[in-house]
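Troubleshooting log. The previous structure file for this entry was overwritten by mistake, so regenerating from the original sequence record. Sequence copied from the archived sheet and checked twice against the printout by T.R.
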Amino acid sequence: MMPALSLIALVSVLSAVFAKQLDVHPPQQQHRHWAQLCSGNPSNRIRGCDRYGCGNFGASRQGGKGERHVGVDVICADGATVYAPFSGQLSGPIRFFHNGNAIDDGVQIRGSGYCVKLVCIHPIRYHGQIQRGQQLGRMLPMQKVFPGIVSHIHVENCDRSDPTPLLTPDVPDVPPFPQQDTHWGTVCAGNPINEIRGCDNYGCGYYGAPRRGGKGGKHTGVDVICADGATVYAPFSGELSGPIKFFHNGNAIDDGVQIRGSGFCVKLLCIHPIRYHGRITKGQVLGRMLPMQRVFPGITSHIHIENCDRSDPTGNLEGGKGRRK
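Regenerated output below.
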């Protein structure tokens, strides 16, 4: 039998070795590859070549005069939802062009053993913690600056190494979300992850987006994409009250309802509920989407979702998929 002192010494050595391994391979780094970056591009497909250049790492820049592309361009449509590739700490803003153009914005994420800059996006915030697969922001209007380019997120490692191998998911990667009741259920049929409207001719759907022609007004809700006539579900269990008239003009979408319960209070607008009062359960049919195209032709039809205290509901809306109960 091993003497007690020798056993203690062995345990100490093993503990030290294990601790060193944790320093090199932190527990958060469970994924060898990053998650999906942009809605509509589950495999993080990289931009090829267009008249502005090529999107691969090391591609020539500045007309081939020796400069090389030190990042990778991941295809992303203007206004699309952007997700965090891994868990970490945000910092920013990152100004790539330093000229204030329509895409001169971005953010850095450091954590899980990685550090990366994501450029040409507008993040929902510049500081704080974010989880892998959580909504990070939206793609900015690259076509306004470079008409005809393949719109993309510029992804650049902080040490300027090649991020390409990390961008190839093991399998097509639907952004994973924490399975907690702090997240609401699917709100609209056909949009299981509660995807938020990007930007169109009428404005943008994210929280804090400019309103009133940019004259100081801010969007105090979030616009969840929902086709006209689609079924609408209760995001959580609670008590209904209403009707809620947002436009106060009796147009075809001037209807809605409030739900209070489960620690939340929210108004869902541009829908017609099956009733305005009584109890409803998370995932139960709440009503239907009203004909938004009649009022705003060409807009991305959506439910306007606004917390009663006007705080940001984005975090609660992430990951509706699989939460209808």
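The two ends are 57 Å apart (CA to CA). Archived copy saved in two places this time.
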